[in-house]
Amino acid sequence: MKIRRARVNCFLKHPGGQFAVVTVLMLILFALVGLGVTFVLQVLFGGNWMVF
Fold it and tell me: What's the pTM value of the predicted model, to 2 decimals?
């Protein structure tokens, strides 16, 4: 299934589309930071750490 560039560009021109893209990217960033912090704590102190 291909997505046409024109449709993507049209989606990104609207504020709602930009908000959706930024929201998804921020959620991915927070998830990666959470995983990184968990990994560092596990390496430093051992055991399982839950980061909320």
Answer: 0.62
List b or e across 21-30, with b for residues whose CB sees 16 or more CB atoms inside 10 angstroms. Answer: eeeeeeeeee
DSSP code per residue over 1-52 = ----HHHHHHHHHSHHHHHHHHHHHHHHHHHHHHHHHHHHHHHHH-S-----
| Spatial distance between the Cα atoms of 35 and 23, rounded to a whole number of angstroms | 18
In the chain, domain spans: 25-52
Longest dimension (CA), the chain: 50
Q: Across residues 27-39, what is the average pLDDT?
A: 92
